[in-house]
Amino acid sequence: MRRHLGRFAAFLLLLCLPAMAVADCTLPELRTDQPPPADGPVRVAVGFIVADFLGVSDTDQRIDVDLRMAMEWTDPRLEGLEGCRFGVSQVWFPPVMLANSASLREAFRISRNQVAVGEGGRVRYVQRYTGWISSYHRLERFPFDRQHFTLDFLAPDMDAQSLLLEPAEAPPRISGRLNVEGWNIEGVSLASVVHQLAVLDRPSSVLTLTIEAQREATYYIYRVLLPLSFVVAMSWTIFWGSPERFEFRIGLGATAMLTAIAFSLSIAGQLPTLGYLTVIDKMLIWAVGLVFLSMAESLVAWLINKGGEGRASDKPAARRLDRTSRYVFPLLLFGGWAAIFAI
C-alpha cells in the first residue's frame, strides 16, 4: 500500500512541474519598445549556418539559400528567468532586417518564434530562412568568374550608438553537402562595420555575410568552346586549296561562317542575357571574326594569283600567303582567346 501511495505522489509531482515552471516564467512589467539598459550600445551577437545553397540565377541576379541564424543579447530585465521561453512580441527584440531585396520564408514564425532566456538575462533567438536573395553580382568574367555573394543585415531604426551587430564567437559554417550545380562553394565569412548608409541620415551597424563561390567552367569549355574551335578550324582548310579555285574556297568559308553563326545562336539560351559582354561572348565574336578573315584571305590570295588591271599574276606569292595563314590563324584564335581570358 505504501509503495502505491509513493508512486501516486511521484506522479502528482510530475504533473505539477510544468505548472510550477509556468509560474516561474512570469514576465516582469517592461516596455518592449525600449532596448535593455546598458552602458553604451546594446551588443547583438549574430551567427550563421549556411545549411544549403540551392542555386544562382545570373539573369535575375539572385541566389537561393537556406540559412540558420542565431542572435544573442543581454537584457538585465529578464534576470532570474533562466530556462524560460517567450514570444518575440513579449520582449524587446532587435529590429534587424536584411538589406538585400529578398523573398524569404521564416520556418519558425508560427510554431516556435520564441526567444530563450539564459543565465544573467542572456537572450537567444534562432530562426531559419529559405528563399531567394538579391546578390548584385557582376558577370564580366563569365564563365570563369569567382563571386562573393554578400548579405547585409542592419537595424535601420537604431543608430550605431544604440545597437551594434557583431559576429558571434562561433564562426559561420557551411554544410558539407550542398544541392547547387555548377558552382564550388569555397567558404563563408562574417564581418561587422559601422558606416553611413545612403538611405539613412546616421551611421548604422551593418553585418555582412559573404559566401565565396567559383563557377565550374568545364561545361562551357567542352560544350561551347571546343565545338566552336572545330567550326573555326573548318575554315582553315581554305588555306590548303588552290588559289585558282576561288568558288570552292569562298563556298567553304561561307559554310563555316553560317555554321559558326548558327552555333552561336543555338547556345544563346545557355548564356545569361546581359547588357554587357562577358568573356565567353568576346570569345564567340573573336572566333566568328576569324572565320570572316579567312574568307577575306581567300579573296586576297585569288586576286594575287589572278593579277589584272596592270598587275601580273604572282602565283608563288599567293601560295606563300596560304602557307603563312596555316600557322597565323591558329595562333590568332588561341592567342586571342588567351588575351581575352587574361584581361
Protein described:
There is one protein chain. With 343 residues, the protein is of the alpha+beta class. It has 2 domains: 28-216, Acetylcholine Binding Protein, Chain: A (Distorted Sandwich), CATH 2.70.170.10; 219-342, Methane Monooxygenase Hydroxylase, Chain G, domain 1, CATH 1.20.58.390. The protein has helices spanning 2-24, 218-236, 246-266, 279-306, 315-342, and strands spanning 42-57, 62-74, 85-87, 97-98, 102-106, 114-117, 122-134, 146-154, 163-167, 173-174, 183-196, 203-215. A hairpin with a 4-residue loop joins strand 6 and strand 7. The longest helix is centred in the last third of the chain and has 28 residues, at 279-306. The termini are far apart.
The tally of beta strands, per DSSP, is 12
Distance between the termini: 91 Å
CATH fold type of the largest domain: Acetylcholine Binding Protein, Chain: A
CATH architecture classification name of the largest domain = Distorted Sandwich
pLDDT averaged residue by residue? 87
Radius of gyration: 34 Å
Low-pLDDT segments, ≥5 res: 16-23
The portion of residues forming beta strands comes to 25-35%
